[in-house]
Amino acid sequence: xxRRSIQDSIQKxxxxxxxxxLYGARRTGKTTLSKALLAGFGDEARYINCEILQYxxxxxxxxxxxxxxxxxxxxxxxxxxxxxxxNIGLTLKVLADTRPDIQLIATGSSSxxxxxxxxxxxxxxxxxxxxxxxxxxxxxxxTLPVDWDARLENMLRFGMYPDVxxxxxxxxxxxxxxxxxxxxxxxxxxxxxxxxxxxLFKLLQALALQLGHxxxxxxxxxxxxxxxxxxxxYIELLEKSFVVFRLGSFSxxxxxxxxxxxxxxxxxxxxxxxxxxxxxxxxxxxxxxxxWENFCVTERMKLLHNQRQFPNRYFWRTYDRKEIDYLEEAGxxxxxxxxxxxxxxxxxxPAEFFETYPNSSFEVITRENYRGFLx
Length: 375
Fold this sequence. Notes:
Structural class: alpha/beta
Radius of gyration: 22 Å
Shape: globular
Number of domains: 2
Helix content: 40-55%
Largest sheet: 7 strands, mixed
Strand content: 15-25%
Number of helices: 17
Order of helices and strands: HEHEHHEHEHEHHHHHEHHEEHHEEEHEH
Number of strands: 12
């Protein structure tokens, strides 16, 4: 079993008076990680699947006597898929306040639903983590770096979901179709009572085809025959359910800098490719550059999160089309990056940016040097 990077960080926080909240898309391995965290506690640990009706009903109360009767004298308790419990935040607050001897770990596949009901009641009482599909750092445990290059094309084509990574091509495709059809959008549709599943899928296809490019709510709305408020709401829900994420534009000093635009990236290349039903080899594609950019930006996000680093992250572009793929801002310093699949591609640094922000670094990330950036 591949050990997840955040496991050590979570274990260091156990019995420090904090409820552990573990978010992540379905099928990213939250249950497996939760059970790994419980493994060292033997009979003092209890796992509860909150999607089972009888458990959900037992945890819908804030009556401490009823909660104590149900939970018993266990030392560590996992509440898996805790977003299924109405007002879960109040339940967790009561338990955190009245049972400090118990270490609670609550997982949720829909951060938007849990966050709305958890953040305020648990203010100061919780620590939050997100479990993504496998990262390069995690798979390096069972793969020599020299073998990464051989697997790199498959990562760009099929992604990094635990049940997909390393599988033969036919099995990887079956798993991706299963995840896309039966799991990935379930929470968006269920917890927000969205009536337009057709619009959701068409929006995802449109975002998949615009990968690596700036996105406009108005243009998407016009394309899909909807108003821009609906499009914005759907993208926010997809982001909060770990399907996509947005990267805003960096703008400080230049009038020509775009200030309100953004890009949308997919948290997994395999999911993106499944939306457009294109798993062709890279030699037969015209979107390899976009796949490489999506892969690098997403893997960098995983690495930073797993290391508990949270810099500001952007892209940069001007109205006259000068651009930089990716920026990080931390400690008053800007680090900038361009992503090129072809190591021999010519890259021109936008002089205007570095004249305006003279202490910024610049690096081109290719398939020959990506390991230092992503692992």
